[in-house]
Design brief:
With 106 residues, this protein is mainly alpha-helical. 45% of the residues lie in helices and 0% in strands. α2 crosses α4. The longest helix has 25 residues, at 52-76.
């Protein structure tokens, strides 16, 4: 599960609990791209003369890597690995988290 810009995973606790109650294993990492409200690194136009599009695309790559790393961790951890059907893995997100989800699937 991927949080949006200026978000944190805790915002989606109700959704995560609902999914877990249906038997899903839910993982919602804090992204390391500077987008969480606890670690906000805003885009500044003059920053390294990069466009906002370039900046956001870089964030998407970081966020997709965060999701992939979290999934790999779960698949390698014996506590979870035996309970995961690798043919039925999903990803979801809200706002920029939705864009992150699409990037992960790409």
């Amino acid at each position: 599960m991927s949080h949006g810009l200026i978000g944190i995973p805790e915002i989606y606790t109700i959704l995560a609990e609902q999914l877990a109650s249906q038997g899903f294993i839910v993982c919602a990492p804090v992204h390391t791209d500077g987008s969480p409200c606890t670690d906000l690194t805003p885009y500044h136009k003059d920053e390294k003369k990069q466009t906002e599009s370039h900046y956001r695309n870089r964030q998407l790559r970081i966020r997709a890597a965060n999701i992939s790393s979290a999934l790999n961790y779960l698949l390698e951890d014996n506590t979870f690995a035996n309970h995961i059907n690798i043919d039925q893995i999903g990803v979801c997100g809200h706002s920029f988290g939705g864009a992150t989800s699409v990037q992960v699937l790409h």
